[in-house]
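User: Can you predict the 3D structure for this chain?
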Amino acid sequence: MSARVAEWAGVDVDWERLPQDPARTRRVDAWVALAFLLTGSLGVELLRSIDALGAQADSWLWPHVAVAVGTVPLVWRRRWPLLVAAGLSLHLFAFGILMPAIAVSMPLQVVYFLALFTGVAWARDRRAMLGVVIGVVLLMFGWLTWQFAVGSGIEEAMSRGGRPLTRQGIFSPPAAYVVYSLLVNVVYFGGAIIGGQAAWRGALQRDRLAEQARTIDEQATSLQRQAVVEERLRIARELHDVVAHHVSVIGIQAAAARRVLRKDADVAERALSSVETSSREAVAQMRSLLGTLRSGDDTGADGLRSPEPRLSDVPALVDDVSGTGMHVECRVVEDSPGAVSAVPEPVGLSLYRTVQEALANTRRHSTASAASVFVRVDRRPEPGFTHGYAEVEVLDDGRPRSGTSGTGLGLLGVRERLAAHGGISEIGPRVTGGYRVRVRMPLPEDAS
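Assistant: Here is the predicted structure, written as C-alpha cells:
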C-alpha cells in the first residue's frame, strides 16, 4: 500500500513544477491574497453585524488580525507551497479553537482549501508533500475525533433552546451529526488533496508533451540540416563532373589549336570555337549549381536555372567529346520508342554523369584513341530489376597513361549514385584490353 501511495504521489518522479513566468505568478498570487483579505474582513464585519462572532463580539482588532494572518501567506503559496499549506492548516486548527466563527467563515474555508490544494499541486519535494498531507489529515481528524469524544459540540448541536432533539430520520441525532461532520471533512480535505494531485499530474503531462515536441522539433531541424549537407555534397559531385568534363575538353581543344594554328587556320578556328562553347556551358552549369547553394530553391543566380542533363542528352555529350580528337560513337538501345526520354530525371542525371566522368577519365588518364558508349533501357522484369532497368556502358581501347592520377572523387561519385538508386556496376580493365565502365540502375514502377 505504501508503495502505491508513493507512486500516486509521484515520489520517485524526477521533475519539479516551476512557474513559467515567476514574476507574473507572484503578481497573481498577491492579488489573490488581497482579494481574500478584503473578502475575509468584510465577512468579519457582517458576522459582527448579526452578532455571530461569539466571544469576540466586543473585539474589533483580533478578528481582523486572524483574517490577515490566514490570507496574507497566499502571496507565497506557489513559492513555498508546503510551508504555506502547513501554516494555514495550523491556522485552521488554532483559530478553530480560539475563534471558531472566523475559522468556519466562508472566505477562510476557501483559503484553507486553496492552500492545501496548492501545496499538493506545486510541491517540488513529493516525499515532503506526502508527509505534510498525512500530518494535516491526522491533525484535523484527530482534533475532530477529540471534539466528538470530550467536547461539548454534540450536546450543543443536539439541543434547541435547551431541549434535546427528537429522532425524525433513520439515524439518531448524535450519529447523524458525527457522520455528516466526517463526510463534510472527507470531501473538503479529500477534494483539496485529490484535486491538487490531479493538477500536478496534468502539469507533468503537459511538460512531457512539450519536451517531446521540442525533441521532435530538434530532430526535424537536424534532419533538415542533414538534408542540406547531403544536397551540398551532391552539388559538389556535380561540380566536379562538370568542371572535369569541360576543362578536359578545353585543354584538348586548346592543345589542338596550338599545334595547327600556323598550319590550318580553319581547324584551329573550329578547335577554339569548341573551347568557347565548352567554357560557356561550364560557366552556365556551374552558375546553375552555385545558384542552388545560394538560393536553396530552383532558381539560379540569374533567376532561371537551366534544366539538369537527362539520359537522352548522352548522344549530345558524345558528339561534343568526338570533336576533341578522340573518336567516340554512341548507340542507344531501347525496348520501345521514347523509353530513354521517359527515364526519371534522378536516374537519368546519374547515368549521364557516369558517362561524363568515364569519358573525362578516358581522355585524361588513358591512351585510348576511340571509345564506345551504349545506352540501354529495358522495362521487362529481370532478377533484381522488377520494373526494368536503365544502363550505360563506356568502353575504350587504351591503356593507363603513365604520370597521371586522379583524385578518386569521380568514381566515388559514381558509387554513391549507385548506392542511392540501388544499382549495380562493373568498373575496371577488360581482359581483351581497354577499360569498361558499366552501370545499371533499376526503374521505378511508374516509369513510362
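Confidence is low (pLDDT under 50) at residues 297-304. The beta strands are 159-160, 163-164, 327-334, 370-378, 389-396, 424-429, 435-442.
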